[in-house]
Amino acid sequence: MTKCKLEYIWLDGYQPTQSLRSKTMVVEDFSGKVEDAKMWAFDGSSTEQAPGGSSDCLLQPVFACPDPGRIGGNSYLIMCEVLDSEGNPHRTNGRATIKDKDDDFWFGFEQEYTIWNPDLNKPIGFPVEGFPGPQGPYYCSVGHGKAVGREIVEKHLQMCLDAGLNVEGINAEVMMGQWEFQIFAKGAQRAGDEIWIARYLLERVAEEYEMSINWHCKPVQGDWNGSGMHANFSNTTLRTCGSQEVYETICKAFEPRIKHHIDVYGADNDQRLTGLHETQSIDKFSYGVSDRGASIRIPITTVKNGWKGWLEDRRPASNADPYMVASAIITTVKSATVPASA
């Protein structure tokens, strides 16, 4: 018999931004398959998810992968949905709101974040007093004093790959200490699962370096880019229609639903969506080909491929729940009245 460590991971009930929680179950001879992971429970009164007099919440495993960072091997990460004591989706369960049972929707999330020095309460690389030089040389940079925190980023990337996550790239971002990773999945729930597992692994790597990860969308006020989680998405229609008219119809479906999206696109997003720093204003909507100042960008690749491809919603913040972002996008796309010829 082989003892295996299963790390059950879930989202708590803190508002306006949920946090990751986890605890370990030790079992014998786990297969590595999510269907063989048992349902578990936790004290919801300690996570803002239940009252003390009726505190049990349930953990329903939905995604499993190897845990490459744990000593001794035979370890797995188990992403879970939270259910109430009667087995219904908890009010904090964003994953359960996704209406994409056939995985027709594909998502690629560009997750930005800032490596944070807790001793200085500043991004890694920032001086004790004042600020570094203005942004410009840090994006996709290399070299001392520009690409700061690379050892954390590289270790995180390798851990994600060893876990089997579909990370498609990383890069240094516009502000010093700010980085990004990209994850793609066929299926909205799977994309959300992998983003949350990748976030969990990043937090664990940062622990080793006595750093933290700041997910806030505007961690440093002033003339610095905020942090986003751009959502690239497609369904069969977008991938195959070959029609500019269809693309514009779908884009226009987002315009009357600004509040519906902004409500789930992350806390304090008004600090980031100002109309500056490659953003549209939070209360406005626009779309355009290759326009990084628009709410929805139509990639030039999509146009050159004969209007077959995907769209990018540039509004989600770095601290948004990818489940809720995907859910809102799917609802809006499905609401569009696509021309019958498509």
From TrEMBL:
<dbReference type="InterPro" id="IPR050292">
    <property type="entry name" value="Glutamine_Synthetase"/>
</dbReference>
<dbReference type="InterPro" id="IPR027302">
    <property type="entry name" value="Gln_synth_N_conserv_site"/>
</dbReference>
<keyword id="KW-0547">Nucleotide-binding</keyword>
<dbReference type="Pfam" id="PF03951">
    <property type="entry name" value="Gln-synt_N"/>
</dbReference>
<dbReference type="Pfam" id="PF00120">
    <property type="entry name" value="Gln-synt_C"/>
</dbReference>
<dbReference type="InterPro" id="IPR008146">
    <property type="entry name" value="Gln_synth_cat_dom"/>
</dbReference>
<dbReference type="GO" id="GO:0006542">
    <property type="term" value="P:glutamine biosynthetic process"/>
</dbReference>
<feature type="domain" description="GS catalytic">
    <location>
        <begin position="89"/>
        <end position="342"/>
    </location>
</feature>
<feature type="domain" description="GS beta-grasp">
    <location>
        <begin position="4"/>
        <end position="87"/>
    </location>
</feature>
<keyword id="KW-0963">Cytoplasm</keyword>
<comment type="similarity">
    <text>Belongs to the glutamine synthetase family.</text>
</comment>
<dbReference type="GO" id="GO:0005737">
    <property type="term" value="C:cytoplasm"/>
</dbReference>
<dbReference type="InterPro" id="IPR008147">
    <property type="entry name" value="Gln_synt_N"/>
</dbReference>
<dbReference type="InterPro" id="IPR036651">
    <property type="entry name" value="Gln_synt_N_sf"/>
</dbReference>
<comment type="subunit">
    <text>Homooctamer and homotetramer.</text>
</comment>
<keyword id="KW-0067">ATP-binding</keyword>
<comment type="function">
    <text>Catalyzes the ATP-dependent biosynthesis of glutamine from glutamate and ammonia.</text>
</comment>
<dbReference type="GO" id="GO:0005524">
    <property type="term" value="F:ATP binding"/>
</dbReference>
<keyword id="KW-0436">Ligase</keyword>
<dbReference type="InterPro" id="IPR014746">
    <property type="entry name" value="Gln_synth/guanido_kin_cat_dom"/>
</dbReference>
<protein>
    <recommendedName>
        <fullName>Glutamine synthetase</fullName>
        <ecNumber>6.3.1.2</ecNumber>
    </recommendedName>
</protein>
<dbReference type="GO" id="GO:0004356">
    <property type="term" value="F:glutamine synthetase activity"/>
</dbReference>
<dbReference type="InterPro" id="IPR027303">
    <property type="entry name" value="Gln_synth_gly_rich_site"/>
</dbReference>
